[in-house]
Amino acid sequence: MANLTMVTGFLLMGFSNIWELQVLHAMLFLLIYLMALLGNLLIFTLISLDEHLHSPMYFFLKNLSFLDFCLISTTVPKSIANSLSHSYFISLLECIVQLFLVISFASSELFLLTMMSYDRYVAICQPLNYEVIMNKGACVKMAAASWLTGGLFGVLYTVSTFSLPFCSANEIHQFFCDVPSLLRISCSDTHIALDVTVAIGFSLGILCCISIIISYGSILSTVLKIPTLEGRSKAFSTCLPHLFVLTLFITTAAMSYLSPPLDTDSILDLLLSVFYIVVPPTLNPVIYCLRNKDVKTALKKLIA
């Protein structure tokens, strides 16, 4: 215990040590953040105001937009401020709150995306029973379960991570506080509570992936039986964008959390985190707005 020191904060890793590249990173992140902010707020507003969008699919999309807004707002603004101020310090309390929010929002998004895949399965494979199965009460309960489960995981990961002792090393090899980077600078080789939490999270993540695979497998089988090309195109247009973003989110997050920690700084860690923290919240509104006729119609009505 003599070698332990009271850690009051951490130093986040920057994308570059060159001032010009730091400014470029800040401007790029600012542009991406504004796109994600405007896009998700636009979808949230359109679905809230247009009665034609008050269906289960858009209810889940509205929740997804709000989650995306919260997730990207938890990390990107802080990274922009650090790059411009040339100070990468984050206090212990800020790090705790940031880790809790990132895990909560990311976990909630995974569960919500699973619910959305089930919604598309019922809509395409059991259309006659859709309104009965996906009634308002069921949708609210499914969304609430996603939020509450995500919050529970946020608490479990945060408590188990910060119950570990930290030595004098306080440099986090990431642009935000996350579990793998904090675990790497912990001076404890024993972290049973965190291992159990990760195992539970990984198991539920596998269950979500299996559920999504089954849902989309059934959807693909049903869509291929549709006789008309127009019918198949309409079904694929609502599912393929969802499947693309979902795959990107899950694979990059899994690679980041399941890969063995490195002893040196790696730009790959930063890029992987960008692909599951920054890219999906930015792509979701673009994909759903540009490829969805109902959303585009609602936007035209709002502008007119």
TrEMBL record:
<dbReference type="InterPro" id="IPR000725">
    <property type="entry name" value="Olfact_rcpt"/>
</dbReference>
<dbReference type="GO" id="GO:0005886">
    <property type="term" value="C:plasma membrane"/>
</dbReference>
<keyword id="KW-0552">Olfaction</keyword>
<feature type="transmembrane region" description="Helical">
    <location>
        <begin position="198"/>
        <end position="223"/>
    </location>
</feature>
<dbReference type="Pfam" id="PF13853">
    <property type="entry name" value="7tm_4"/>
</dbReference>
<keyword id="KW-0812">Transmembrane</keyword>
<keyword id="KW-0807">Transducer</keyword>
<keyword id="KW-0297">G-protein coupled receptor</keyword>
<dbReference type="InterPro" id="IPR000276">
    <property type="entry name" value="GPCR_Rhodpsn"/>
</dbReference>
<feature type="transmembrane region" description="Helical">
    <location>
        <begin position="139"/>
        <end position="159"/>
    </location>
</feature>
<feature type="transmembrane region" description="Helical">
    <location>
        <begin position="235"/>
        <end position="258"/>
    </location>
</feature>
<dbReference type="InterPro" id="IPR017452">
    <property type="entry name" value="GPCR_Rhodpsn_7TM"/>
</dbReference>
<dbReference type="GO" id="GO:0004930">
    <property type="term" value="F:G protein-coupled receptor activity"/>
</dbReference>
<dbReference type="GO" id="GO:0004984">
    <property type="term" value="F:olfactory receptor activity"/>
</dbReference>
<feature type="transmembrane region" description="Helical">
    <location>
        <begin position="96"/>
        <end position="118"/>
    </location>
</feature>
<feature type="domain" description="G-protein coupled receptors family 1 profile">
    <location>
        <begin position="39"/>
        <end position="288"/>
    </location>
</feature>
<protein>
    <recommendedName>
        <fullName>Olfactory receptor</fullName>
    </recommendedName>
</protein>
<keyword id="KW-0675">Receptor</keyword>
<keyword id="KW-0472">Membrane</keyword>
<comment type="function">
    <text>Odorant receptor.</text>
</comment>
<dbReference type="InterPro" id="IPR050516">
    <property type="entry name" value="Olfactory_GPCR"/>
</dbReference>
<keyword id="KW-0716">Sensory transduction</keyword>
<keyword id="KW-1003">Cell membrane</keyword>
<feature type="transmembrane region" description="Helical">
    <location>
        <begin position="26"/>
        <end position="47"/>
    </location>
</feature>
<comment type="similarity">
    <text>Belongs to the G-protein coupled receptor 1 family.</text>
</comment>
<keyword id="KW-1133">Transmembrane helix</keyword>
<feature type="transmembrane region" description="Helical">
    <location>
        <begin position="270"/>
        <end position="290"/>
    </location>
</feature>
